[in-house]
Amino acid sequence: MVSLDFKKTGGLIPAIVQDASTNEVLMLAYMNPEAWAATLKTGKATFYSRSRNALWVKGETSGHIQQVREIRVDCDADTVLLKVVQVGGAACHTGHRSCFYTKIEDGVATVTDAPVFDPREVYRK
């Protein structure tokens, strides 16, 4: 098994998440060793939340989980790429399919797609 270099990056490594079928980049998150182990064990994308200082399974609240189909590790063993099946059609907490829904062109920001779900409905507190 590959050994990831969590020390080089201060304990957290970037995890790029792509749709397994289309290769669309859905999001970027971070993993600590526990999140990495949980992802390998469960097959569900699990990350470390820097704002909450806790592990989180993507889709735990919304139901829009990410089922891991393939994992790749970069040449320095300090970044992972997860190819996933995005259940529910949306990876972003804003309701968009991808977190990268804002395009910058000639200094102007444009939202490129409509949300798949209303986050106010999904994340009621």
Computed over alpha carbons, the radius of gyration is: 15 Å
The CATH topology is given as Ubiquitin-like (UB roll)
Average pLDDT level:
94
Q: SS-based structural class? A: mainly beta
Helix content: 10-25%
Order of helices and strands: EEHEEEEEEH
Widest sheet: strand ordering: 2-1-6-5
Which second-level CATH architecture applies? Roll
CATH C-level label:
Alpha Beta
Percentage of residues in DSSP E strands: 35-45%
Task: List segments where confidence is low: pLDDT < 50 over at least 5 consecutive residues.
Answer: none
Description of the molecule:
The relative contact order is 0.19. The chain starts with 12 loop residues before the first strand and ends with a helix. The chain is globular and about 40 Å long. The longest helix is centred in the first third of the chain and has 10 residues. Strand 3 and strand 4 form a beta hairpin. It has a four-stranded mixed β-sheet. Strands 3-4 form a two-stranded antiparallel ribbon. A two-stranded antiparallel sheet has the order 7-8. The mean pLDDT is 94. Helices cover 11% and strands 36% of the residues. The chain has two helices and eight strands. The protein has a single domain, classed as Ubiquitin-like (UB roll) (Roll), CATH 3.10.20. It has 125 residues and is mainly beta.
Question: What are the salient characteristics of this protein?
Answer:
125 residues, mainly beta, Ubiquitin-like (UB roll), two-stranded antiparallel sheet
Compact overview of the structure:
The protein is mostly beta strands.
